[in-house]
Write a structure and sequence with these properties.
Number of domains: 3
Pfam family, one: FecR_C
Strand content: 25-35%
Shape: globular
Order of helices and strands: HHHHHEEEEEEEEEEEEHEEHEE
CATH topology of the largest domain: Jelly Rolls
Protein name: FecR domain-containing protein
Helix content: 25-40%
Distance between the termini: 76 Å
Organism: Acinetobacter thutiue
Amino acid sequence: MDSNASSHSSQQEKKQAYQQAAEWYLLMQEQPLTAQQQAEFEAWQQVPLHQQVWQNVRMFDDKFQRLPKQQIARTVQHFDAKLPKQAAQLCIVLCSALGLLYVGQGVRQQDYFPEIWSFDPVEIYHTERGMQQHLTLQDGSQVWLNSNSKIRVKYNSQQRRIELAKGEIYIETHKDTFKRQLSVRTSHGDLLALGTVFNVRYSAEKTELLVRQGIVRILTKDRQTQQDIPAQHAATFNQDKISPKSYQATHMLWRQQLLVVHSMPLGQFIKELTPHYQGKIQLEPALDEILISGSYSTQDVEKTLSIVANTHHLNIQVKPQKIQLAQ
């Protein structure tokens, strides 16, 4: 079998797996699986390709859960009225409905929509508030996820790509045997790693880059702006503009669960701590501009804020899932 025929066969297998996954997904939405159906589903998942595809379907399901149920029903009914109910089309209905809902709702780019038609295997990793995670990818690259972060890892024969959907990551790249370039993608553009160690923080408004070693090339989403950022330098960018940023190695100490600041307004300090706390932190507006300096732990936010309150003679109230700071 030649390479083209093999590739075509592989794509057909992936499409069939997606169709089967869509059938399982819709079946589970209708009612709980019977014992026999559960056994059949578990047997189906024993195939590695099926596991990868099911993980992707669960990712789509995560998107659905964020959207109003009434609009989901209306959109699915719209497709249901126009398309026959053959199993081969269920996946198209599912993904098309999701795409329309996503655009129609104007979902913020805090967790942007992935490419759903590439059929590339996707590995998804995420951390909850107050948690961090260290990964070794299949090529040997090391990735650390900060608190409340999420990535999608897409490796195929041509590329090594990490999609940063939210939060912050630190990467130590590894030389690839197949000479595939490693890139990090956010909704603002791509970061191309040229043998490097770097840190990326993503928010809806911008992506922040700190390069510790090597060079990272920024390509904004519109592909009209690019810039190489060398070691010991930093930058921020959005979809069409790249701006220089002061390089501070202390910003990468989050891996040691440390927040090191110098003359940072208390309001901003609270924002930096919030992803590491399971509950809510309330700050009296009059205290926003108090300047904070020092090295603080992100592992025990209550203790950190108690130290800040004591240093600046503030009142602190600690309740279940809530901390309040006032004069």
